[in-house]
What we know:
There is one protein chain. By secondary structure, the protein is mostly beta strands. Helices cover about 5% and strands about 35% of the residues. The strands form two sheets. A seven-stranded mixed beta barrel has the order 3-4-5-6-7-9-10. Strands 1-2 form a two-stranded antiparallel sheet. The chain starts with a strand and ends in an 8-residue tail after the last strand.
Amino acid sequence: MKIQTRYHGEIEIEEKDILQFEKGIPGFPDEKRFILLGLPEQDLFSIMQSVDTPELAFVLTSPFNFIDNYEFNLDENTIEQLLIENQEDISVFSIVTIQDPFEKTTANLQAPIILNVKNNQAKQVILNDTEYKIKHPLFKKAVKR
């Protein structure tokens, strides 16, 4: 099927590649279908594009690329909702806020996107009682202006 995207123009996608967010994502409860798209010439960041709303897209990264000891426990409700059978079925992403200069870019570590790679069921989880921030700097030495 063809969709319009914010950053890639019109593209062809496969139905099997669509991520399903049963309850949408916080702030966008009606947005339930997304697709992950790569970015040219780099592999640290990707785009999570809404299948139904061309202008809605989020920049994602794996927090493990930037944070040495990022860890948390998933609640039973999330494990059941996403039909997670073991830890290897999970991919974790953080929504990135791009800043100018780029070295001031932040990631939302308090609300990771959890994806069951076996069935493409996904959910944005809000972590309570954690030291992780919504705007965690990705780069240790941010450039001062």
